[in-house]
Design a protein that fits this description.
With about 230 residues, the protein is an alpha/beta fold. Helix content is about 50%, strand content about 10%. The protein is built from 10 helices and 5 strands; from the N terminus they run αβααβααβααβαβαα. Strands 2-1-3-4-5 form a 5-stranded parallel beta sheet, with helices on both faces. Strand 4, helix 8 (about 165-180) and strand 5 (about 185) form a beta-alpha-beta unit. Helix 3 (about 75-85) crosses helix 10.
Length: about 230
């Protein structure tokens, strides 16, 4: 009789353990509903999806055009060559943010790019455009880009002799705005100038305040690294 009771208890124990195994397996499958997909290791983010539309439009003033040289040696041209992607240069001389906004549909939206680099501010500072007006048109361009599924990128205006304080205000506001909107910022001064906003040797053209051909080359390579 005692042997029989021991056998019964062993059978009951086996059944209980089997039930636990089934429950544990069920819970494990429930936690991993996406079968065939391995979860990313803790602390490791999944890679961002590849950008389908790699075309870029660079809209700006003389610094985007490539003045005092030509567009063939501009930073957008260097960016296209370095990154092996299509980059359209829509830089024109003596432009303000309002000028860029007025031609945004024709020069950016019509090109159907995946990204747009907005590089302006020096013309506004020279023409004494109020900060509020500058802000208004930068925001309008960003909103227009986003509403058309184009990723906006903001390039900060370069320090410029005679309007340093105004440029500083523009740069500080754009940096803050871009952070708030989670927009990528480009700062060409980091590759062209020293801590005192003086052009590094060989990077300033004979036309004061503008980069040399080598300066524009470094600017294009800089953007390529940032966007890579």
């Amino acid at each position: 009789m005692r042997t029989y009771r021991i056998e019964i208890r062993l059978i009951q124990l086996s059944v209980f353990l089997s039930v636990l195994v089934v429950i544990a397996g069920f819970l494990g499958l429930w936690d991993n509903k996406d079968q065939g997909q391995a979860a990313a290791p803790p602390g490791q983010e999944e890679p961002a999806p590849a950008l389908e539309n790699t075309k870029i439009v660079a809209i700006g003033d003389s610094f985007t055009f490539g003045y005092p040289g030509n567009t063939e040696n501009s930073w957008p041209a260097v960016l296209g060559q370095t990154s092996q992607i299509e980059v359209v240069n829509k830089g024109l001389k003596s432009q303000t943010a309002q000028d860029l906004y007025s031609r945004f549909d024709a020069d950016v939206l019509a090109e159907k790019p995946g990204r747009v680099i907005i590089f302006v501010g020096n013309g506004d500072a020279i023409k004494e455009v109020p900060l509020e007006t500058f802000q208004q048109h930068i925001k309008a361009m960003v909103e227009k880009a986003e509403s058309n599924h184009i990723i906006p990128i903001i390039a900060l205006p370069l320090p410029y002799t005679g309007v340093q304080n105004t440029i500083k205000e523009f740069r500080e506001w754009e940096s803050s705005y871009a952070k708030e909107k989670n927009i990528l910022v480009l700062d060409f001064a980091t590759v062209l100038m020293d801590a005192d906003n003086v052009y590094l040797e060989g990077l300033l053209s004979k036309e004061a305040n503008y980069p040399s051909k080598e300066g524009y080359k470094l600017m294009g390579e800089y953007v390529s690294r940032i966007l890579d």
